[in-house]
Amino acid sequence: MSELSEQRDQNGRVSAVTLYDVAKAAEVSTATVSRVLHNDPRVREETRQRVLAAIEQLDYVPNGAAQSLSRKRKDVIGLVSVERLAPGEDPMARASLSFVEEVLRGVEAALRAEGLSLLICFLKSGQGAFERLQALSGKVEGLIISEGIVPSAMLARVAKRVPVVVVAGSRTETAVDVVAADNWGGTAELVSHLVRDHSLERLYCVSGPMDAPDARERREAFRAAVSDCGAEEVGWYEGNFSTFSGEEAARQLLALPSHRSPQAVVCGNDLMAIGVMRELSWLGIRVPEDVAVVGFDDMYPAAIYTPPLTTVRQPATELGARASRRLLEKIGDPTLPPTVEVLPTRMVLRASCGCEMARLRRDDVSIAPQSMGRSDDGDSIDLTEPDKMTHESTGDGWLSGYRAGCLKGNFAV
Question: How would residue 62 be classed by pLDDT, with cut points 50, 70 and 90?
Answer without folding.
Answer: low
